[in-house]
Every structure is written in C-alpha cells, then in structure tokens.
Amino acid sequence: MSREQKAVDRARKAFETGRSKPLERIRQLKNLQRLLTERKKEIADAIKKDLGKSEEGAQLYETLGLEGEINTAVRNLKEWAAPRPVQKNLLTLSDTVYIRPEPLGVVLVLGAWNYPWAVTIQPLIGAIAAGNAVVIKPSEVCVHTAKVMEDLLPLYIDKELYPVVTGGVPETQELLRQRFDHIFYTGNSMVGKLIMEAAAKHLTPVTLELGGKSPCYIDRNCDLTIACRRIAWGKYTNCGQTCIAPDYILCDPSIQNRVIEEVQKAVKEFYTDDPKTCPDYGRIINQRHFRRIMAMLADSTVAVGGDNDESDCYIAPTILKDVKPDAKVMQEEIFGPLLPILPISSLDEAIKFINKGEKPLALYVFSHDNKVVNRIRDETSSGGLLANDCLVHFSVNSLPFGGVGNSGMGCYHGKFSFDQLSHQRGCLIKQLKMEGMNSMRYPPHTAKKLGW
Ligand code: NAD
C-alpha cells in the first residue's frame, strides 16, 4: 500500500469513528488558530525562503486572513451546522421538514504555491468546520512551506483526521487514484482538467479554484492617480503572482501615457527607485517561471521596467505599452510583474474584447461614472467584480470567492466554504399516524377519489 493510500485510509477510518462530527471540531479550529499565533515566525521564515516575502507581508497576505476565517467559523458554527426548518406543502403539514448540513466524508485539499498558506489552509478551515476528514497536499513548489506544514499541523490538529501528504506530481497522481468525497483544488486550469478527469472515475465532486487573465478597464472619467495606485498595488504585490491580479489594462489611447506615469509613480512610492533591494518587493518563485515570464516580453514595447536577474529570480515592476491582442503576453495568464496596456477606442470595444476571452476570475473597472460600472457588470461575466479597487474582495468573507467557466467552479470563504464542503441533506420526518390523509395517493386512482 502506498504512503498516499495509507494516509487516505487512516483519514477514512478516523472519519468513521465519528469524531470529526460533533462541535468538538471547534476545538480543532482553535488549535489551528493557536498554531498560526505561536508559529508565526517559522511560517513567515519559510514563506520568505520560498517567495522572498517580508515577515510583515507574509502575515498581512497569508495568515491574518486565516485568523479572521477561523474566528468567523468558530463564532458561527453552531448556527451554520444547525438543521434549518423549511416551508411545507399541504401533504406534509403535520411532518417535520428540514435541511441538515452533514459532512461529506474525506476531502482532498490540493494547494498552490503563490500564497501557500492562504490557499491551502483556508479550504482546510472550511472542511474542518463542516465536519470532514481532510487530506492536505501543499504545493511542492514551495519546498520550505510544505515542510513546515508537514511538521507543524500534526502538533496542533488531529493527525489521523487531517494528515499532510507532501510530494510532487507522481504523489498527487497517486492521491488522485484514491476515492475521496470531495476534491478542492487550487491551481492552473490545465491541471484543473486533469483533476476533474481523475475525480470523474469515482464521481467525486470538485471545487476548482483556477486562474486566467483578469482584465482591468480604466474609464477616461476617473481619478487616474488613485486608480493607478490601486492597480499598481494589485499587480505588483507578490511580484504579480496573485490569481486575482489585474492581468492587463484596457483604456482609451488618450490616457495611456498618464496611466504609465501614474503607475510608475506608485511603484516608486511602494518599492523605491530600486525594487530589487526593497524588502516589500518579492521574487519569481523559480527559474522556470522566470523564463516563462521573460519570454512574454519578446514582441511588446517596454515603457517602464524590464530589468531582471535570472540568478535572483528578479523581474522589475514592468509596464508594456501599445500592446496588441495577439502579443505573446496576451495569450496566457501572466502571473508575474508585467502590466500590458491595450489602447481601446470605446467601452463597447472593451466589453467585446473581454467577452471574447475566457470568463475571468476577477474583473476590474475604474470609473467615477456608475453607468460605466453597471455596463461592465451587466454585459460581462466573471468570478468576482470589483469597481475602483483591486484584490480586496478576497478579504470579505461574506462574499463567495470563486471562478466561473474557465476560471473555476464552486466557491468558498466564510459560510460559503462550510456549505461547499457539506452535504445539504433534505429530511422529512413523518409519524406512523393519520393514514387517512394519504388515501388519495394510493391506487386505484379514480376520478371520484381524487375529487375531479
Ligand atoms: P502548483 O504548480 O503549485 O500546482 C497546484 C497543485 O497541483 C499542487 O499541489 C501540485 O502538486 C498539483 N499538480 C501540478 N501538476 C499536476 C499534475 N500534472 N497532475 C496532478 N497534480 C498536479 O500551482 P500552479 O498551477 O502553478 O498555480 C498557479 C495557478 O493557480 C495560477 O493559474 C493561479 O491563477 C491559480 N490560482 C488560483 C487561485 C484561486 O483562488 N482561484 C489561487 C491561487 C492560484
């Protein structure tokens, strides 16, 4: 029996003892909270080694949100998990009819590397809250973080119910051969298809948190200084390696130069004249991704930035101007610090352009004019929509977070995680009395009996 098979087996056996179900799961969540507090330093150090993020950056973008998520779950779990009475019809008036959220069983969480704690532990929180056993597979790309997770999680939460399995593609493939009750995958769309294919063999439901190109439309009627500051933050945080980073800008040709100027100004303010030595500016995760991103520059004009250093996986915050739709940088999600600007002649053209692409994970619009915001909202589709800011919808856990079409399926955060990883069991409890009320449904079905 493989190591992966053994871990799944143990998790299933632990689930079958029933110990993940009672509200004792709140204790497991509190233990996870304790881990985040007590081991802050080890977590941040590992993230720094993997992605070059500062300690403050790691806390701000990774663990702070998790603490909020745990608090929400702990505070509301009793209410979320309680059976909900529903409306009855004439035939069931004297019965008890309700929806009871129940655990699904054993959930597989496959994490990605770009926010290695956030995207692995956040689904784990929802899965624990919903009463499941969970096999956790952190991304192998973040070597140090995966090791810290493997070492620390068993010290704080039930190691049989929530085992960590580390490894790369072969180990993930072995895991995917096992039977799960749900698979929660975060990563790219190509692998997302492989996950769904493997899940289909066992008819296992999936949540796919994928990526893609998130467009950013800037209207002429807009405070460009503020807009570009927010866009620069959204783009260059984590060196552009954010699933909801604004991928490219669409704007009128007449404001292109101002946009370049204002983004450049914000970059200076955030990361100084020399981002390479600035502790708040990260690095590309590895040389494979460094080369992938650099190759995208081949047929575009660099307006700002472009400096790079392969040995340090450094690419400066870069702006590309007059980019054509068929340029290399427009063919796939950038996932790096390049910001292409595509001049576009009208809002109609922008909407047409957005709708020609796959449905994005996030869609950004900057305008003072509500009509523009509403037109973008009403005439397009995307996982989430944000007007006049970037990224912050991720932090609002009363909003569902997830993609649509090529950017994913299913959603999570807050109660949405709990619902996504629960089975909503419809229950109808009748008494063995009042049989007379049922006479109409039993054959023979005569018009006389039915009163027709
Ligand atoms: P990755 O390489 O870390 O892969 C993610 C997981 O898939 C890992 O656990 C890995 O072991 C597994 N995997 C990789 N190749 C596999 C294969 N051939 N078969 C089976 N399993 C395999 O991450 P990535 O895909 O490079 O992540 C970046 C992508 O993730 C981007 O597209 C980004 O937009 C997206 N993303 C989405 C979200 C979201 O919440 N929607 C969050 C973060 C990242």
UniProtKB/TrEMBL annotation:
One of the GO BP terms on file: aldehyde metabolic process
Any one GO molecular-function label of the UniProt entry: 3-chloroallyl aldehyde dehydrogenase activity
Residue ranges of every copy of the Aldehyde dehydrogenase domain listed in the record: 5-422
Presence of keyword Transferase: no
UniProt family annotation: Belongs to the aldehyde dehydrogenase family.
PANTHER family recorded: ALDEHYDE DEHYDROGENASE (PTHR43570), ALDEHYDE DEHYDROGENASE FAMILY 3 MEMBER A2 (PTHR43570:SF9)
Protein name listed in UniProt: Aldehyde dehydrogenase
Protein source organism: Tetraodon nigroviridis (Spotted green pufferfish)
